[in-house]
Design brief:
The chain is an alpha/beta fold. The protein has nine helices and ten strands. Strands 4-5-6-7-8 form a five-stranded parallel β-sheet. Helix 4 links the parallel strand 4 and strand 5. Helix 8 packs across helix 9. It is globular, with a radius of gyration of 17 Å. It binds zinc ion (ZN).
Length: about 240
Amino acid sequence: MIDFHCHLDLYKNPLALMKEVEKRCDFVLAVTTSPRAWVKTSQVFSGIGNISVGLGLHPEILAERIQERELFMSYISKCSYLGEIGVDGSLCNRNSLSMQESFLLEVIKVAEKQGGKVMSLHSRNASKKILQIIESEVYSSTPILHWFTGTLNEVEWAISLGCWFSINPKMFLNKKGIEIVKKIPLSKIIPETDGPFTEHAGRPYMPWEVDIILDNLSQMHRIPLTEIGEIISNNAEILQKKL
Ligand SMILES: [Zn+2]
């Protein structure tokens, strides 16, 4: 089981969860929402071979955490993965849009100077902006668009830019999400839960509950489940080798 975008530190009992993840998952990318959270989460999960912790500063809280900007930049050289970072163009975050963009540009600039990072990118209501930034600034890094909700043309654009997509169970619940997933080559797909922010049956998705994604992909492409499993494992290996 592979979960490439999960907020492990935000579940109710991360320590108990950690033990389960160690047993049940092949790999989890634990994204964080602030550099301070990255430090703490990295300490807690250090030594757990199948968990990597992404250095993040979530666009929705960037304005209130802008004093952590320098801290973030100084940690980039110490991390393998970046995330969750990106731009959120929702109405409630419009006031910080220019701050969000300038922060992301600086992060990418620093990451590129260091040979590039694998980055999990948030793009809600800002897909065009994110793709413009990737097109003009990303050369060595590997962008993974997390829970992409842009247009189908933007999906094509993203594919042409070499983007990857982390997809979660919620994307199979509506027509638009299904159309997006259909358009993405299987060789660019990696599962995510975005837990604990995605729920089913009144509780959050757990990082090992990605089988529903594989089932859906198997049905969508009429490819046996075992084959889908192999493709996804291979994709995760490719991403891990980029570090
Ligand atoms: Zn997230």
